Amino acid sequence: PPEHDFPDLDENTQATTFYTTGTTGNPKGVHFTHRQLVLHTLGVALALGCYDTIGRFRSGDVYMPITPMFHVHGWGIPYVATLLGTKQVFPGRYEPELLLRLILTEKVTFSHCVPTILQMLVANPAVRELDLSHWKVIIGGSALPRGLAKAARDLGITVYSGYGMSESCPVMSLSTPKSAAGDLDEDRLLNIVVKTGLPIPLAELEIVDGDGNPLPHDGTSCGEVVFRAPWLTPSYVKDPETTAVLWRDGWLHSGDLGSMDPEGYLQLTDRLRDVIKTGGEWVSSLDLGSIMSQHEAVAESAAIGVPDEKWGERPLMLVVLKAGSDGDVGEEELMAHMRRAVATGVLPRYAVPHSFVFVDQLPKTSVGKLDKKTMRQQFGRRPEGT
Q1: Per-residue DSSP letters for 154-213?
Q2: Is 282 a catalytic residue?
Q3: Residue 277 — pLDDT band, cuts 50, 70, 90?
Q4: H helices, E strands: number in the chain
Q5: 114 pairs with which residues across the strands?
Q6: Rounded CA gap, 241 and 235, in Å?
């Protein structure tokens, strides 16, 4: 019908329910009220549109989400686009040629996606002939590797990170610089856009130790990331035990490890379940993947911990090479690349992967996130002879 008489609902009426993707454990039901969705929309709109920085999203933009709508409300940004009256383009299938064609023909200026989708686009040969300097992209769902960020920026794409989780509706932070991009050199800008970012308005982030005590914002102290905001899910559906673990001491516990620098930027180190413990030392699988991504022959990479009798665990690196690199790059070359990171002080010696496995593709979830659970199931035992 051309008209609809909307019911006059209480703002605290439950509006949405969905389940987490279960990348590190069993899926859990989360839910949000109409009030929470409105507050989250306003917070994200302020963060994206009001600061003099890169990647602003306003009513004059053309918005094309490259994230499924079932994945945390499409990250909540379709609500923002609707509030602003922004033109919206929904692509359907996430095929590189289709996406690139829509970006050009519909004059798309703003999108968001997981790193896998961006990697798929920047690796497409056709992209070299296109002008993508008008395209702004938020990367979430997984960490933005520095190598991928540089490849996107080399194509003129404005790229930066967003952070959140299903339980947080989801956006909690964005890695936009505090100043305009012109005030920063390229290296400094890359360092910022791959970070987890600054809290958006009405969101509060903290890092705490195992006893729940706040840790210094010195850029090195590492603890669990905890949240406060007026839009966080109050509980898991029909799961009071897990809810009690989620909400402790008045904070929502993310299960992520991170540090915060003096400027307030959060940097995730790893998921608690994904961090690798070797010889009593913690190794970030995210750091390993980001360093590996900077090798010119590597398209995608991910690190997992595999059992080791001597060290408890050792890092195993899964690598997808770029088209045409097969046969030219082997384990010795990748090992040398990681050791160069040790020589420059970027990586501790004990964090260098013991072995590398070359694969055609990395296991991913239905929303394109790296599926570490499946990786551990498939590759959790070290190959014989390594």
Answers
A1: HTT-EEEEEEE-GGGSSEEEE---SS-GGGS-HHHHHHHHTS-BEEPTT-EEEEE-TTSP
A2: yes
A3: confident
A4: 10, 19
A5: none
A6: 10
Exactly one of 277, 281, 296, 386 is catalytic; name it.
Answer: 277
Question: What is residue 364's DSSP assignment?
Answer: B
Average pLDDT, whole number, for the chain? 91
Q: How many angstroms separate the CA atoms of 299 and 146, rounded?
A: 12
Instruction: Give 137's strand partners.
Output: 111, 159
Catalytic residue among 82, 204, 282, 386: 282
Is 277 a residue of the active site?
yes
In this prediction the pTM is 0.79
Q: Write out pLDDT tens, residues 320-376.
A: 999 877 667 889 999 999 999 999 988 888 899 989 999 999 998 877 788 888 898
Question: Which tens digit of pLDDT belongs to each residue from 10-36?
Answer: 999 999 999 987 655 678 999 999 999
- Of 20, 67, 86, 233, which is the active-site residue? 20
**Angle, nearest 10°, between helix axes 285-293 and 331-343?**
110
Distance CA(362)–CA(300), nearest Å, equals 8
* Placement of tokens 């929470």 in the chain: 36
The helix or strand, by DSSP H or E, that contains position 28, with its residue range, turns out to be none
Distance CA 78, CA 64 (A): 9
Distance of alpha carbon 284 from alpha carbon 160, whole angstroms? 21
Beta bridge partners of 29: 19
Q: Which member of 53, 150, 167, 372 is catalytic?
A: 167
How many Cβ atoms are within 10 Å of 378's Cβ, its own excluded? 14
Residue 73, amino acid: H
What is the pLDDT, as a whole number, of residue 382? Answer: 45
* Residue 105 annotated in active site: no
Q: Give the DSSP letter of residue 53.
A: S
Q: What is the pLDDT of residue 354?
A: 84
d(CA 284, CA 222): 11
